[in-house]
């Protein structure tokens, strides 16, 4: 019997997973007609949502992946689809919810793991905590095989630092003791696939690489790989940034990934940003 993945909010990470699921029926939702056409051209079934009825897709799904960002009231998927998803619980083999490591809040550069208390300081982080709780509550009521994935900062093809370094717009924002964790999109896909293969309802996984680092170090390495001088330094207090960009600097932490490796047997293809950047640059050269 063919496995069917319903990917609600089919975006960058979900697309990377879909490329790994050979022989699956994949139904992806999107808000935009042009993206729906791209999904169909890639061999997926596409639905416009919000808008189209997802009832038949939920009923047909063996697996569901949710990538939709929450708002201040929590998860918009559950506001409209909770009853249908709950009714489908008996035949669902796996449900994945993509959250973020922003749920942990600021730890002044310290380490966090899945047992760390959730103390977000940003509006986005608080919305994620609310949404996670809503999914966990539904799982408890309906017996949903829920898995939560707390993703670090995502990068990969089309989402690397090289273009800004090459065109001279990159700046190394310097703030003492500022650490970010990252994850290559292919390693996200590998983690999701490993969980699908080895489901553990109720499990929560941090999906991050082995080398949390200050953001300026990543830009310095990108410049080195390009044979260019490092981008200029700008003190955080003097930097011109959008409110969204500045909010990313409100929290500093290093994220442990031990559970991902131990419980799912994941071996990261890109265990640090050095490996990830080298691969991105090699892909750019090949495409060129």
TrEMBL record:
Record flagged with keyword Lipid metabolism: no
Top-level taxon of the source organism: Bacteria
Pfam families assigned: Epimerase
PANTHER family for this protein: EPIMERASE-RELATED (PTHR43574)
Ranges where the NAD-dependent epimerase/dehydratase domain occurs: 91-208
Keyword match NAD: yes
SUPFAM superfamilies: NAD(P)-binding Rossmann-fold domains
Keywords: NAD
Name this polypeptide is given: SDR family oxidoreductase
Alphabetized InterPro entries for the sequence: Epimerase_deHydtase, NAD(P)-bd_dom_sf
Species annotation: Albidovulum sediminicola
